[in-house]
Input
Amino acid sequence: MQFTSRKEAAEAAGIGERTLRGYLHDKEFISELNRLYDDWMDECTQELQQAVKQAIKALRGALTEDEAPLQSKIAAARIILDSAPKYLELNNILQRIDNLEREVEK
Output
């Protein structure tokens, strides 16, 4: 849930704005909030990875299924061809960053 103001966030939490401001200056609270956010992002990432695997499997099936209409095969091929270079480029960049970080650590 996203709030447009601190007032909305405080109301949703059942606390006053002043109390919320206090929490936002509490290092332990912020640390725990960041930890919870990181955990949530890890869960989202895992779900997205699973969804991507399923999507790739579906595209591959549409591409190779003998009885699939030609238009479906072309659409699947187009999606794969559009997506692959982006993925490969991103993967290359991440590997380069990883290599640079290892060099800096030496």
